[in-house]
Specification:
Strands 1-2 form a two-stranded antiparallel sheet. A hairpin with a 2-residue loop joins strand 1 and strand 2. It folds into five domains: 204 residues, Tetratricopeptide repeat domain (Serine Threonine Protein Phosphatase 5, Tetratricopeptide repeat), CATH 1.25.40; 56 residues; 96 residues, Serine Threonine Protein Phosphatase 5, Tetratricopeptide repeat; 145 residues, Serine Threonine Protein Phosphatase 5, Tetratricopeptide repeat, CATH 1.25.40; 44 residues, no CATH class. It is an all-alpha fold. It is extended, with a radius of gyration of 44 Å.
Length: 766
């Protein structure tokens, strides 16, 4: 591209000289177009494109990166100015350049259709333009992004031929880059390696060659060719002058040494890099690889230290997610601590991670979240089953919980809690099952295990023992399947399957458990034992669908299972439900339950009926009643097991609502009594005020009487007698005080007026 830029500058110089020598209209139009529009547009575009390329992290990434809104705004200015050139200066010498800038601007905005159209317009209208072959390259780039791969690859081959004929090494190099991007996207690593090696021969750009060698090493590693990967990383040092590229190549070189089992060499390399202060901005990735190397050497304590250093010191680094993943894997595979492994996998899932770790983290997080959920469900169901079958268990645990709270309060009052950084919460169970470890915990394992056991407040179970027993069976079976299929820990899977078979001999899942045991023996190579189990299933479970799965394993004819008379009715009801005739479907489902209570479709019909009531008719109470019937009548069915938790949550919510309602009624009653008391006091005060007014009137009238006239008012007589402090006297035993509030007492004294009078006096004194 430098040659083209030099040629363009030369053309512009000739143009300016011609302006002064000749005075043609065309030259003047070119001159004004350049300074009024094209110069500004090209300056904006070149500046923006340079920044876009600088932000691109991987030159061989097929997916074009998203650009910032500020870049989009600048590119819009370019499109606007170049469009004006085409509209008002269509006869100038800058139309092909304008089309080219518009096309590239659309491309960076990911508007590939419009970009393709502009590049094609340039090629058609200006076939002799020096931008023509470059426009063809960009047409191929847009076709690749629009997934027209065959057309794009054929076009790249044609451009490569033209570039070789024209000795245009830069265009030729770009064709190789686009092909490598395509092959990597298609995971055709061998073809990508071929093109990268050819690129290294053609390219004269040393930094591009260094990037190509790093990419070449990555591809060799994907193909497990670690020796060639090592050579590629080492060759980077012959090309690059970039400190970051050189450091990356050295780290990758060390990684390839680890993959070649040359652990001590790799460790020496990484430690030397860490001890060099100029690498301090990359200590996180160096420390991560030191930890990986220590783990490969079997030095788990130093590996744990390195990973935790990144977890704490470089917690926001893009390599923090990788370190937390490595911690999880260390606890899972080396220390047999699944709870701690789950903690770090979950932490890695919410952390920044390099692209290599993202799919690994997602997979482990999903598996361990499922494991942790099953473990929690199993522990809760075992606890509730214990409460349901042992009347004293709940009392014992309640006492233990109360004592635990008391000890925590005392400890909080005397000491400051010291919570160790790392895993807190549940106690480690080890390898996912409750049995003795095969080895004594080491000091490192004790350090890694949670230090604090959190007790939960005991609650009485909502489900009956039979329902809880069915849930326990299902939890154990699901854990066995998880270890068999996801963790691929066959001994743990066998533990769960054999435990169920030995302890739950009447379960409806007995055939499925036996089949899982047969698969276990088949996987570990004991075919005779597996076949004997499959034969047993075939002879003894001919009424269950599992019999045909066993028949396939031992090449036996499939069994025609007994026809269920309720099957047709269920299919009809289900069809009516799908037609949104919900009330009619509910009646048909309920009839199946009534008429065929022993059919396998009876619990299924109740489940469907509850679903319609809950989800379609929004009658949650009615649905809960149906689920209750399903759980009580068919506690061992898988349909009951699927709604037990939902029903349990419903009952808990109902209890909360009833308690809230009772509290609300109690508050209303209390407010009513308080209001009644207030009304009584107001009435008493009103009557007293009325009496005082009457008394004042009598006193006034008495003052007007002659001196020898004696009042006849009984109240006046009583008040002129020797004063008696009735308020300080004890009330009669047969008449206890009625307490209306803390300040008001009513005593049975003769006369309503005297009672009110005493009340007011007492209230004023207090």
């Amino acid at each position: 591209m430098n040659f083209k830029k030099n040629m363009k500058s030369f053309k512009l110089t000739i143009l300016f000289l011609s302006i002064f020598i000749f005075s043609g209209c065309g030259l003047w139009e070119n001159f004004t177009t350049y300074f009024n529009l094209y110069y500004n547009a090209s300056e904006i575009f070149n500046r923006t494109e340079k920044l876009i390329i600088q932000e691109r992290k991987d030159i061989f990434s097929f997916t074009e990166p998203n650009i910032s809104s500020s870049f989009i705004g600048e590119l819009e200015k370019v499109i606007e100015k170049c469009s004006r050139i085409m509209q008002f200066s269509g006869e100038s010498a800058f139309v092909d350049e304008a089309l080219f800038l518009i096309g590239k601007s659309f491309y960076y905005q990911k508007n590939y259709v419009r970009a393709n159209r502009k590049f094609r317009e340039l090629v058609v209208k200006f076939p002799e333009s020096e931008l023509s072959i470059e426009a063809e390259l960009w047409i191929a780039k847009t076709e690749l992004q629009m997934r027209n791969f065959d057309f794009a690859l054929n076009m790249l081959d044609q451009i490569r031929t033209k570039a070789k004929e024209n000795e245009d090494d830069e265009i030729l190099t770009q064709t190789y880059i686009e092909r490598v991007k395509y092959f990597m996207q298609m995971q055709s690593y061998s073809n990508a390696i071929i093109d990268l090696n050819e690129l290294l021969i053609v390219s004269k750009d040393s930094e591009l060659n260094a990037a190509a060698l790093i990419q070449l090493g990555e591809l060799y590693s994907k193909l497990d060719d670690y020796e060639n990967a090592k050579k590629s990383y080492l060759a980077v040092l012959n090309y690059t002058k970039s400190f970051d590229t050189e450091l990356l190549a050295r780290v990758k070189y060390g990684v390839s040494l680890v993959q070649l089992d040359r652990y001590n060499e790799a460790l020496d390399l990484f430690i030397d890099l860490r001890n060099d202060d100029k690498n301090k901005t990359s200590f996180d990735i160096i420390e991560l690889n030191i930890g990986i190397t220590y783990r490969a050497l079997g030095d788990f304590e130093n590996a744990l230290h390195s990973f935790r250093t990144i977890d704490t010191t470089f917690s926001t680094s893009i390599h923090a997610g990788g370190a937390r993943y490595e911690l999880g894997e260390l606890f899972e595979e080396e220390l047999n601590n699944f709870d701690s492994a789950h903690f770090y996998y979950q932490k890695a899932f919410t952390s920044s991670s390099s692209i290599d770790y993202i799919p690994l983290i997602r997979k482990k997080q999903a598996i361990f979240s499922k494991y942790q959920s099953l473990r929690t469900q199993l522990n809760n169901n075992l606890r509730d089953f214990n409460y349901a079958t042992d009347s004293l268990a709940f009392i014992r645990d309640s006492i233990t919980y109360a004592l635990h709270l008391d000890s925590l309060e005392k400890e909080k009052a005397t000491t400051t809690p010291n919570v160790e950084q790392g895993v807190q919460g549940q106690q480690a169970t080890g390898r996912g099952r409750d049995r003795e470890r095969l080895f004594a915990p080491t000091e490192l394992q004790q350090q890694a295990q949670p230090q604090q056991v959190q007790l939960q407040m005991p609650q009485r179970p909502f489900l009956k023992a039979d329902s809880l027993r069915s849930l326990i069976i299902k939890n154990n079976f699901d854990l066995g399947n998880l270890f068999f299929t996801e963790f691929e820990l066959l001994d743990s899977a066998y533990y769960y399957y054999s435990y169920l078979y030995q302890n739950y001999d009447t379960t409806y899942m007995r055939g499925r458990i036996l089949f899982s045991l047969g698969n276990y023996y088949l996987t570990v190579g004991n075919k005779n034992r597996a076949d004997s189990i499959f034969h047993y299933i075939y002879d003894n479970f001919q009424n269950e669908s599992i019999v045909n799965a066993a028949a396939v394993q031992i090449n036996k004819p499939l069994i025609q299972l007994d026809l269920d008379l309720a099957e047709k009715d269920f299919v009809d009801a289900e069809s009516i439900m799908k037609n949104n005739e919900y009330e009619k479907a509910i009646g048909l489902f309920y009839n199946i339950f009534l008429e065929h209570p022993k059919s396998q479709y009876a619990p299924k019909a109740l489940l469907a009926m509850g679903f319609v009531l809950q989800e379609k008719l929004m009658l949650k109470d009615s649905a809960a009643s149906i689920y209750d019937t399903l759980i009580s009548r068919y506690p061992s069915s898988q349909h009951a097991a699927s709604v037990i938790l939902k029903f349990q949550m419903y009952k808990q919510e109902r209890i909360k609502v009833e308690r809230a309602l009772q509290d609300s009624l109690a508050r209303i009653e209390q407010e009513r009594l308080q209001q009644k008391m207030i009304d009584s006091i107001k009435t008493a005060e009103q009557e007293l005020q009325k009496h005082e007014l009457e008394q004042q009137q009598q006193i006034t009238s008495t003052e007007n009487l002659p001196d020898n006239t004696q009042p006849t008012d009984s109240l006046f007589l009583e008040m002129n007698q020797e004063p008696i402090d009735t308020l300080r006297q004890e009330p009669p035993e047969e008449s206890p005080p009625e307490i209306l509030s803390k300040n008001y007492y009513f005593y049975e004294v003769p006369g309503k007026i005297q009672e009110q009078f005493h009340l007011i006096l007492f209230n004023r004194q207090t």
